[in-house]
Design goal:
It contains two helices and four strands. The chain is α+β, with helices and mostly antiparallel strands. It folds into two domains: 51 residues, no CATH class; 49 residues, no CATH class. Strands 1-2-3-4 form a four-stranded antiparallel β-sheet, with no helix packed on it. Strand 1 and strand 2 form a beta hairpin. The longest helix is centred in the C-terminal third of the chain and has 20 residues. It starts with 10 loop residues before the first strand and ends in a 6-residue tail after the last helix. The mean pLDDT is 90.
Amino acid sequence: MGFDAWRAQDIEMSGTTGMLYMNQVWNNEHQTVTLEHHTSDGVETTDFEAVHQLKNQLEHLCQCLATGQPHRIPPENSIKQMQVIDAVFESIATRRAVEM
């Protein structure tokens, strides 16, 4: 995913020990999505059946509100996600990699 890539449907994340690539991350209700995990040992792929992501998210949220069960995504994950987003903006502003 890159800047000014509003039509892009794939995402690639690289790290020090490998890379993740996923096709059709968004708007994938009608097709299988493949996650590729690339390392020095090769490529491992995982396929996910087509689902309507927003519908599933809202159904789960309604179930949590109705029953009091905890949400499947703990609040700590949301905090860490925001830290990653903040680091992305810092990296853009400074034009340097940000360690986390």
